[in-house]
């Protein structure tokens, strides 16, 4: 059996790839395995499956700057699994699919570590492998050519490192208010008011996205107590911010917006909802890690929802 196919089987046994993943199909090609691993997310999850909490999943970037995920994987292999530097592939061997053969070799070494074997999973290779070095030569071209046609979970990978490190940062990113060099006091005030409105619009949209793309769909798959622990009072916060934004826009529609302060006073008591949210958010993150770590099905659904959120134009094909 070709070495990359043995690697794919090992990843399935490690519960990183689902048993029916396309790499198991008779027509499967190595580029499909490379595409699945290329953003580094599954590699970090692999380490957590072999050693719980080896990687903090909250630090993994579902909207890359993918190279950071790969660096996290490589450093953890050294620090916690005992791999030597010369046993590791280079970041761009995977990021640019420059030498996927070296990636397979590193994963093979990882499979033979004591930690990995303690899980009762057979390492690879355990048999004579078919020579397959020649299939890695034009792999980057194959991925570039097929990425738009593929509908796998990780096909919408982007190479633009300036896009931001995390989904949250991407959601909350807003265009800065451009301030001319010479401004009157009124101009400065108007720019501040504009920024208040834009910030609240973006924040409310973020809450709406969490509610629509994560909370509502996951109600079908998570236990009620897990929903409560993970999402806390997000639904209540969404409702408050909807009304707050409406009142804010209404006041700002007047040229001087002199009564803006009254909106904040009006919602002062309602914003006390954040007391509960802030006191439980760390526990919510831990609960999310535990739920995702315990169920590959839930983890994959979370990744699908994240992909829909990051790439709305592809949402129909993903879902």
TrEMBL record:
Gene Ontology CC terms: cytoplasm
Signal peptide: none
Pfam annotation, one family: RhoGEF
All copies of domain DH, residue ranges: 188-290
InterPro entries to which the protein is assigned, alphabetical: CH_dom (IPR001715), CH_dom_sf (IPR036872), DBL_dom_sf (IPR035899), DH_dom (IPR000219), SM22_calponin (IPR003096)
UniProt keyword list: Guanine-nucleotide releasing factor, Metal-binding, Phosphoprotein, Repeat, SH2 domain, SH3 domain, Zinc, Zinc-finger
Name this protein carries in UniProt: Proto-oncogene vav
Protein's organism: Platysternon megacephalum (big-headed turtle)
